Amino acid sequence: MTPTELLPAPPPHAAARRALLAGSAGNLVEWYEFGVYGCFATVIAANFFTPHPGTPGGGAEALVATYASFALAFFFRPLGALLFGRIGDRFGRRPALVLVIGLMALATTLIGLLPTRADIGAAAPWLLTFLRVLQGLSAGGEFGGAVSLMVEYAPPGRRGLYGAWQSFTVALGLLAGAGTAAALAAVLPAEALYAWGWRIPFLLALPLGTVALWLRTALEEPPGAHSPGPPGAADATGPTGLGEQARAVVLGIGRIMGWSAAGYAFLVVLPSHLQSALGASFRDALLATALVNLGFAASILPAGLLSDRVGRRPVMLGGALGIAVLAHPLLHLLQSPGASPPARAAAVLTAGVLVGLLAGPGPAMLAEMFPRRVRCTGLGLSYALANAVFSGCAGLFITALTARTADTAVPAHYAAGACALSAVALLTLRGNDHREPLR
Description:
- Helix content is 78%, strand content 0%.
- It has helices spanning 3-6, 13-39, 41-48, 58-75, 77-91, 93-113, 117-120, 123-153, 159-187, 190-197, 199-203, 205-217, 242-267, 270-278, 282-310, 312-335, 341-359, 362-367, 375-391, 394-405, 410-426.
């Protein structure tokens, strides 16, 4: 019997669609919360990290502290990737995905119920940080399990498209978070928004998480999950020892560091940067965030589909080099007093599209780097470490360095530099990786 005959049969389309929906739903809940937290960073800073409102420099210091809490949660992602990744690799994708969405929905809902610093004093920021840590653990396990599930269910020649749904639901989650924040800012007076309105989006995570949990409990494991495959052949071209797996993780980090850095600089940090560094209003900053996320969302699925046809390397290289070259001109246009509203809208939409070129093929590219027996752990750890360093620190680094140097182009420096380095790592991709069967 040939190795081709031993490969698992393609799954029924109905099962593949259910897997896609279950993986996407949990991912949307996770990134909805991160979008809300990013958009409400200045509100959270005022409620949890400002000991003496109105003191000189207190606003900037509180915002830095808010992003420090944001970054700390990211540094727990690798631990979550290891913990839930091992569960997913040893016991199946479904139990890991059920656990992570339950933990995420619980932690997010509790943030909406937290007393503020005015209510309980210095304990408030510590409680918020603890819940962010729980979110970091669950988010660390989400990516590896969800991407493995989607890609392993993908029909032949569609891994890029199926994996792109993970990134697409990131965009939908961020858009939902930004849209919810913008709607509340439009209908509530500023006093009400700061007093209690900010809690509403966090509390909405409970019904959203419940739906995602229900979808995941009905999942079946991907085809071939309990089959070892061809003897001695399953991992022949993949990392077989611990050292080789570690090198694959490091290479994966290099390939997606531009995606991580530019994604957070443009998609999450932008609202508070526009307010604190450029003096934009809260509503204008949220509008810019909605537009950049719209461009991001619109390009992800086409980028994943294109990568199934021409390969992961040309699509992702185009995104990385595009950001490296255009980050500074786009930010300059956004900051220019003479720029027209349509020109500014085009600038933020373009930034979102370029990030989408990285995010569309990225999940499938990572999944193709690791064999099934370590896929959840390997690709989850690569993603978690890249996000811990280049995403979690983005808000803290950009806000602190902008405040210290008064250089409002710091987000462009950060995104362009990371994407230039990432382009070098992406050159190591082989042109036909997307056509090879999963190991």
